[in-house]
Amino acid sequence: MNYSPTKFLTTRQLSRVWFVSEATIKRWADTGQLKSSRTVGGHRRFPLAEVMRFQTERGLGAAAGVAPTATLNVTSAKSTFDAEQAAEQFFEAARRGHAGEATALLLEAHMLGAELHLVFDEVVAPSLRRVGDLWYGEQMSVAEEHLATSTATRAVESLAASTRRAGAKAGAAVCCAAEEEMHTLPVLCAQAILEGAGWDVRNLGGHTPFFALAEYIEKQRPALVCVSATLQRALEHNARDYAQLTSAARACGARVVLGGEGFRDRAVRARFPADLHAEGFRDLSEFVRGLD
Ligand code: B12
User: Fold this and answer.
1) Residue 18 pLDDT
2) Nearest to residue 146, comparing CAs of 158, 159, 128, 160?
3) CB distance 173 to 226 below 8 Å
4) CA of 26 to the centre of ligand 1 (A)
5) Which helix or strand (DSSP H or E) is residue 133 part of?
6) What are the percentages of helix, strand and coil residues in the chain, rounded to 5?
7) Please, are residues 262 and 268 in contact by the beta-carbon 8 Å criterion?
8) In the predicted model, what is the mean pLDDT of the chain?
9) Residue among 118, 183, 189, 207 whose CB has most ligand 1 atoms within 8 A, to mutate
10) Residue 257 per-residue DSSP state
11) pLDDT tens, 115-171?
12) What's the CA gap between 241 and 7, in Å, rounded?
């Protein structure tokens, strides 16, 4: 799938990818070491090709010890986003534990026009599915699986940091993974999407019992609640407490979004009613757009 190109990075994005302060980036720009242009509003914009040149020249990257190949691979990308190719490259970077390269790939995909939900649905999720398949088939050790996951997580965090819309006021949201659920990467992806859409998000992480989430909703009265469950068996013990959650949400007018393999089954969905049973992150993006 191809998307129209966006070929510039902001000061903030660069600061996140390179782990240097925005002041440093501005100094490089002002002294002509790093070429930039200005928007009509006066903000600096850095062309992708220039970013790539500078990154290679200085050996910069999102993680310490980033390989010299960890550059924004625009030359081969031909200014369009190829989801399959990006997923393949992301898988390789994650497998080798190259967080800088993995981050650059996600940023590149996003800069080339892929919205966050596409980056997560079509690059991150398929890559990790592949990791899971290899682990299941005993072609990847547990240690290798953990390395790939933690690398992917760092890349998603970096992307999220550079796409967060600080100060925007779409509303308050809370997201977490259900009780017994340690698959927290999808929660992070949901958080990134919501923050990118201007929501103020609290991420409660993995293993959050429904009764605890219900109490949180009663106290904090968020407008949106997102819960992820990858494993179905984790949900089975918790159906009763879920009623407490939905009534807390109803009382404060919060919408409830459920996502993940654990909620995919029809019978499960019937036992866990929600405003949205998301198939993927595209559904979440569209749902919150509809709330505007
Ligand atoms: C990483 C990982 C782990 C890590 C998690 C680390 C972390 N911090 O997240 C660790 C090592 C902890 C782990 C543990 C286990 N895991 Co695991 N894990 C995975 C793996 C490789 C990737 C999951 C992931 O993050 N994917 C990336 C996300 C972004 O994509 P996704 O989960 O596919 O979600 C998509 C949709 O479902 C949806 N979505 C999901 N959640 C949400 C939420 C919202 C709000 C929305 C809108 C959308 C949405 O959007 C996504 C994109 O399209 C999968 C492989 C796989 N095929 O999924 C196995 C996998 C899920 N794990 C599996 C298993 C068996 C386990 C363990 C039981 C292993 C064990 N014996 O200990 C434990 C269980 C731990 C627990 N209690 O939760 C099995 C599950 C099989 C099953 N269905 O029962 C899988 C499928 C591996 C396999 N091939 O067998 N795992």
Assistant:
1) 75
2) 128
3) yes
4) 40
5) helix 125-136
6) 55, 15, 30
7) yes
8) 87
9) 183
10) E
11) 999 999 999 999 999 999 999 999 999 999 999 999 999 999 988 887 887 777 889
12) 48
Task: Kindly state the helix (H) or strand (E) to which residue 206 belongs, with its residue range.
Answer: strand 199-208
What structural domains and CATH numbers belong to the chain?
A: 8-162 (1.10.1240.10), 167-291 (3.40.50.280)
Tokens at 61, concatenated: 């990257």
- 72: helix, strand or coil: coil
Q: Is 221 left (phi over 0), alpha (psi -120 to 50) or beta?
A: left
Q: 175 near 204, Cβ under 8 Å?
A: yes
Instruction: Give distance in angstroms: CA of 230 to centre of ligand 1.
Output: 5
| Residue of 230, 255, 277, 284 best suited for mutating to test ligand 1, as the one with most atoms within 8 Å of CB | 230
User: Which residues form the pocket of ligand 1, taking CB atoms under 6 Å from any ligand atom?
Assistant: 120-121, 124-125, 128-129, 131-133, 136, 146, 149, 180-186, 189-190, 226, 228, 230-231, 257, 259-261, 278, 280-281, 283-284
Given the DSSP bridges, would you call strands 276-278 and 171-178 parallel, antiparallel or unpaired?
unpaired
Amino acid sitting at position 8: F
Give the amino acid at 13. Q
Which is nearest to 192 in space by CA: 210, 175, 177, 215? 175
Bridge-based pairing state of the strands 8-10 and 44-47: antiparallel
Rounded distance from Cα 138 to ligand 1 centre (Å):
16
Tokens of 33: 């070491």
